[in-house]
Amino acid sequence: MARHKRTDVEPPIFDTELADMPADLRWREWMNRIEAVLFAAPRPVEREILARVVGRAASIELLIEDICAELQGKPYDLVRVAGGWQLRTRPAYAEAIAAARALPERRLELTRTEMMVLVSIAYHQPVTRASVSEILGREVSRDIIGALREKDMIAAGPRSPTPGAPFTYVTTKGFLEHFGLDTLRGLPDLEALEDAGLLSAVPVSSGTPQVPPNELSINRPDELEHDDDCGVLPGSPLDQERG
Question: Which of 22, 168, 187, 224 is the most buried (most CB within 10 A)?
Fold first, then answer.
C-alpha cells in the first residue's frame, strides 16, 4: 500500500496590519476583531492578547472606546476588570436572564466566615492567618484558608518576616473578576463600605477594624450600583458575566 508523502504546510500568515484597506475600513475590522475575541473569551482579556489581532500602530484603548460607544443602549457593555476587558450583561437584565434560565448556575457561594476572612485579607494583604485571626477576634482555621484557596479567591503570598516565617495570603485575579475590580486600587475604603451599609465594622484600640461574626453584611452583586461608562469600574461587586 502506497504511503502518502508527508508535507509540512505552514499556516497562512494572519494579517494584522491590513495595509491594503482604506483607513476607515481597517479601523472597523480591528474593532470587529477585538469584539469577537472578547465575545468568545470566558475570562477578561488582557491588552497584550488583543494586540495580536490588530496593527502595531493601533491604539487598543481608542478601539475599546469606539466599541463602548456603539454598545450604548445595548443590554451588555464592555468593562475593564482584573487587568483586562470583558463583555458583561447589564444588571438591569439580570432578572430577565434568570427568568429565562439562559445561564447555568455559576454563583460562587461564600459562607459568612469565609467572607469575613476574605475582606480581612483583601484590606491587609499580604497578611498571615494569625494576623487575620487577630483582626477578626476569633481563630481562623486552616480549613477556611483552604476553602478560599480552592475557590480561587486567595493564594499564598511571601513569607512573613516574623518568627517562624509563616506564609502570608493575598487575593487573586479570581477575586478581582468576581468583585468586578480592575486592580486592588478599586477597593472602596472601609468607611465607604460602612456608609453604604455593605459592612458593619467596630474599630478596636489598635486602629484595625474588627468585624464581629454577626455584623458583616455584604449585599448581592446585583443590588449594587453599576457604572455604565466603559472603562475602570468603581470598587464594588458587579453584574453577571455575559454568557
Answer: 168
Distance of CA 117 to the CA centre of its chain: 19
What nine digits make up the cell of 201? 465594622
The DSSP code for 57 is T
C-alpha grid cell, residue 41: 473569551
- Cβ neighbours of residue 17 closer than 8 Å, sequence gap 6 or more: 55, 56
pLDDT tens per residue across span 9-55: 666 788 999 999 999 999 999 999 999 999 999 899 999 999 999 99
Residue with cell 491587609: 124
Cell output for 73: 443602549
- What span, in angstroms and rounded, lies between the C-alpha atoms of 233 and 39? 19
Alpha-carbon distance of 123 to 218, in angstroms, equals 15
0.70 exceeded by pTM: no
Stated as kind and residue range, the H or E segment containing 85 is strand 84-89
- DSSP-derived pairing of the beta strands 167-171 and 154-159: antiparallel
CB 155 within 8 A of CB 175: no
- Phi and psi at 104, nearest 5°, equal -70, 160
The type of residue at 224 is: L
Q: Provide the grid cell at 55.
A: 496593527
Instruction: For residue 25, give the amino acid letter.
Output: L
